[in-house]
Write a structure and sequence with these properties.
This protein has 249 residues and is an alpha/beta fold. 59% of the residues lie in helices and 7% in strands. The chain is built from 12 helices and 4 strands.
């Protein structure tokens, strides 16, 4: 039998996570929440929601090379209008409905979830549940987007850019630049230092914390589901979808 404390904990989890996941899945719910959040933050670096003036949407689970991918694309074509960093299924749905090219980023759970838990202090249950939700959605809607693996984005930028160019030729144009991965890493490190933020790239100390988080995650009841959700979408990574997107006029 469950103890009173465990039942109380499960009830709290249900009240907090389930509404959060529903909001992140629903464009109708997510749009007004995003407006409120932006009004409260009042920052110049707020993530842009997919809309008619966006040229490409880049989304993925946290710690899946979201910032790296955006920096590669902006280095390839400065001024590119990108919607990213919502980490929400709702933003992908909006982009698909508008016919905006969408790049979905994937990374193995033992790396992505462990990195998120160790860096942001997210509870394992929330982190795993949201990972499963995102990757199960990507598997179901894979024909509507380009799925790019963490390794290709961070280690083979030429291939990543070629995939984006073939998938959505108008986004980068014919004469886009080809930045080197190391240059992107240096620029990102400088940005994090300038803004007094914890560097999002791996360091020796962070790798230790990630390894500790991974050990805790692998014994979690939801862990096998997370692995299955990644394995289900992996075969379609780094390959062009069919058909390519048609922008709504």
């Amino acid at each position: 039998m469950h103890s009173r404390d465990s039942l109380k904990g499960s009830a709290v989890f249900a009240r907090t996570l389930i509404p959060r996941m529903l909001v992140k899945r629903s464009p109708i719910l997510y749009r007004p929440l995003n407006r409120i959040r932006n009004a409260v933050r009042r920052s110049g670096n707020l993530p842009r929601l997919a809309s008619d003036d966006v040229e490409i949407c880049v989304e993925g689970y946290p710690s899946s090379a979201n910032s790296f991918a955006v920096n590669v694309l902006r280095a390839a074509r400065p001024g590119l209008r990108i919607s990213s960093h919502h980490h929400a299924i709702a933003n992908i749905k909006i982009a698909i409905r508008l016919g905006i090219p969408c790049v979905a980023l994937i990374r193995p759970p033992e790396d992505a979830i462990a990195s998120r838990v160790s860096r942001f202090g997210t509870s394992p249950r929330v982190a795993i549940s949201e990972y499963c939700d995102m990757h199960e959605f990507l598997s179901q809607r894979r024909a509507n987007m380009l799925i790019a693996s963490f390794r290709t984005v961070t280690e083979d930028t030429d291939r990543f850019l070629d995939l984006v160019s073939a998938y959505a030729p108008d986004v980068l144009g014919p004469d886009f630049a080809r930045p080197e991965p190391e240059g992107i890493r240096e620029d990102m490190e400088a940005w994090f230092v300038d803004n007094e933020l914890e560097i999002g790239l791996p360091s020796g100390q962070r790798k230790t914390r990630i390894a500790q988080a991974r050990q805790e995650l692998e014994s979690h009841a939801l862990w096998q589901r997370a692995k299955r959700s990644y394995d289900a979408v992996l075969p379609w990574a780094d390959a062009l979808p069919d058909p390519t997107p048609t922008r709504r006029r």
